[in-house]
Amino acid sequence: MLAALAARAVERPVKIALTRQQMFQLIPYRSPTIQRVRLGAERDGRLTVIQHESVQQRSAQVPFADQTVSSTRMMYAAPHARTTVKVAPLDVMTPAWFRAPGHTPGMFALESAVDELAGALGMDPVELRIRNEPEHDPESGKPFSSRNLVACLREGAARFGWERRDPAPGIRREGRWLLGTGVAASHHPDYTFPSSAVARAEEDGTYRVRIGAADLGTGARTALTQVAADALGVPLSRLRLEIGRASLGMAPFAGGSLGTASWGWAVDKACRALLKELDAYGGVVPDGGLEVVADTAEDLERRADLSRHTFGAQFAQVRVDGDTGEIRVDRMLGVFAAGRIVNPHTARSQFLGP
């Protein structure tokens, strides 16, 4: 905002650079959390109680609470569950989503507790998670649109060689290094927001698709171009995608892993509607071109009332220096059930992270 105001004042581009110290004082950040997780289970590993408490900070001026405990409400089946978030207003900058919503630190606490429970019960941590797989969303009672966490856990265990793991910590050494293996489940909700897009057929046989999306380097431009080309049935060379301007129409922000689903739906709908319009002209583009606008707001309202989430399982082999406490990750495997993958390269980059 400051850069935009300054640019308007001086009538030329303005760039604002912050020092490392200013980064902690002037921009949003992930709020630190204090979390407490308590689990109760039968001897066979079936959960009876899940309790997850989180304390986090916010600024004194702006209310904010991150979704630290949200995943806990629907990850595992238990007849009794309680999650709470307490927020402390302090004289600090307002926190916000940092790289993604706040499910990550909450899942770390939950999955750490599940591992400790597996150790106390003498159970395989993978089997403990599978044994507590819910048939429906424990929080809302709604059926899942899809839920393939068990498949991720089993596939990951097979690929990782989980059957050769050390059943107890601290029993395998290589010199001064302690070696160990671990597993954790992961979750992210399906965020899909209303969006609009414009598809246009030009007289020269090319197509132009416009949407007010933003590419932060995550590959949105690549994915949306593919979606449009697939819907139109044309090679990429005949298609031009325009993004990055609010004047291109209503579109949600980039974040929360909602871009491809939200923008792609509108792009696909606009392109298919354009083909229907072209059929009315006998497949011939009229003078001046042909343009169609599509909006997904009503489509979202008509969606079935289901619980929509994505799931994954991570497996890691790490080593810890017994003298210094240094930690090294030898290998890591992630298996994810994330729906249809539009572009394997950009999706892989998202899974690996920055």
UniProtKB/TrEMBL annotation:
One of its GO terms (molecular function) is iron ion binding. It comes from the Bacteria. Pfam families: MoCoBD_1, MoCoBD_2. Residues 1-132 form the Aldehyde oxidase/xanthine dehydrogenase first molybdopterin binding domain. The keyword Cytoplasm does not apply. SUPFAM superfamilies: Molybdenum cofactor-binding domain. InterPro entries: Ald_Oxase/xanthine_DH-like, AldOxase/xan_DH_MoCoBD1, AldOxase/xan_DH_MoCoBD2, AldOxase/xan_DH_Mopterin-bd_sf. Keywords: Molybdenum. Residues 157-283, 308-353 form the Aldehyde oxidase/xanthine dehydrogenase second molybdopterin binding domain. The keyword rRNA-binding does not apply. This is Uncharacterized protein.
